[in-house]
Amino acid sequence: MLLSMALKSLLSRKISVLLTLFTFALSTALLLGVQQVREQSKAAFFGSVSGTDLIVGARSGPVQLLLYSVFHIGNATSNIRWSSYEKLDQDTRTDWTIPLSLGDSHRGHRVIGTSQAMFDHFRYGDNQPLRLARGTPFADLFDVVIGAEVAAQLNYALGDGLVIAHGSGNTSFMHHDNLPFKVSGILAPTGTPLDRSLLVSLQGLEAIHLGWRAGVPLPGLKVSAEQARNKDLTPREVTAVLVGLKSKLHTFHLQRALNQQRDEPLTAVLPGMALQELWQVVGIAEKSLLLVAAFALLTGLVGMLAVLLAGMQQRQHEIAVLRALGCPPWRIAALLLAESLLLSAAGVVLGVLLLQLLLLTLRAPLLDSFGIFLPPTFLSATQWLQCAAILLLGSLSGLLPALKGWRQARANHLIRHH
Amino acid sequence: MKPVLNIEQLCFAWPGQPPLIDIPSLQLHTGEHLFIQGDSGSGKSTLLNLIIGMLPGFSGQVEIAGQALHTLSRRQTDRLRADQMGILFQQFNLLPYLNLVENVCLPCRFSSARRAAACQRSQSPQQEAIRLLERLRLDVGKLQKRPVAELSIGQQQRVAAARALIGSPALIIADEPTSALDPGHRDLFIDLLLEEAEFCGSTLLMVSHDPALTTHFNRQLKLGGHS
What we know:
The complex is a heterodimer. By secondary structure, chain A is α+β, with helices and mostly antiparallel strands. Chain A has helices spanning 2-12, 14-46, 62-69, 82-90, 117-121, 148-154, 202-208, 225-230, 251-260, 271-314, 316-324, 329-370, 381-410, and strands spanning 54-58, 80-81, 94-106, 109-114, 123-124, 128-129, 132-135, 143-146, 161-162, 181-187, 197-201, 212-213, 216-217, 237-238, 240-245, 266-269. Chain A is built from 13 helices and 16 strands. Chain B is globular, with a radius of gyration of 17 Å. Chain B starts with a strand and ends in a 5-residue tail after the last strand.
């Protein structure tokens, strides 16, 4: 009976109630949406590399090594000698290695020199291997496998030719145009920086640098594809190495050995720890986003409270009538509380529906233009908790009008003459 | 038989003021209808607030249907009001979000005694509400669909009267119910109210400043100046 009366009372004030409901639903959707983006960006961040036990590069800080090897941000100050790489690859504790050679680009996208091991051993996200949407890994010296976003943005198909530019950035003036590459495969989307990269073999990368010294081509030394194929294409250096070990037990041991070795200064980091360290920095952004969303919710709550309290002014007569009928003050308070409870519950439900609708419509455009992949999941545990907290706050704010109504109901007058 | 309303030595004064209410003795039995006339400030509303149990701090005795108010807790007073009294205000009697019949049935939500009495007379509270509304010359079929706030003042007061009457409470208390009505509607309203109160076996206690209403009642009391 209480609920049906509360419902009828709310329905009789359609416009102000609907506006309040909408504000409430919007701020709920915003908060839950921010949480969704937070969780998924965090998952994507920590899923950039998985299954790798050590990342090895030239001597530098762990975060810097992680930035250029996994996120392709910035450049390495120096490289690892090929001999050091071979030594690491043949170490008895090593299961596999993925060499990475960075430094060139194609129309703003990083070109990574690597080996077949990339397709065999690289794991991302929840231990998922790389999958080719179309084509095959590079078989020929001048084959290139491109990331999903590169293919979509530059509209490349299998068999298309492309020219690699020397150095990174979009405005490189030096192109390896004597030796064009051919697209042999296109990667399925991964949600990692690899979507925005091009993969070539180390030997291919070596070939296009034949006849180059100190970053510039030697004049008059244009190498043709046929000439390149006949040269010794063993790389002289690599930028970083991803290492998988036979047993996790060796991780710290090998890390210490690499960090302390005398013949070449190297840095070996555990990806998980380096990711954690980097997240401490980038995580601030997502925390402030949550703060903004929390304030939006607070605004919604204050708005609801304002509407409820303004309504109390018009409801003095209603309270007097109910008191005359022998309705006890606590029941009047309960009626008012039930109204705010109904309102916030409806607001939360509407907010969740709004968010799902928004995600459904925005999923495709977000992936296409920003490379942000939002998997179709329902609410996470944290989001359920947030819903409960919003509901609790809504009911708590309903205590104020309820208290006001209770005090009015206990007043000593029902009948007043003016 | 016990009187519906029994007042003995009732005295009440607001703090720091001379006594406003001073009634040595007043008994009202079933079938008697009392008209209390008084000008502004004569203590009419104070007396009503005392009788309906909303104003404590009086001396003497007020008994409704055999229950002395000063012996009852707040909760028991609310219960007594729900079971034994039908209250009719000057205006704003109806809950705007309930329809005609729902408004009339309200007392049956708060009192099982009145619900039982309504069911005894008709099949259900709803049917009793429709019977009362039609007795008070309201076309339920036509008015049911409209929000109660759109009814005329005269119609609203008749809906409120039906609500006070439903479930046959012992005492119906009406506070200037006709002040917004023109004389023709006023007399019709009072006649209908008295007729139906008679039928239900309820006692009517009405307060007004208007001496013209005196003739409708078999008991009168004048407040203010000399009592």
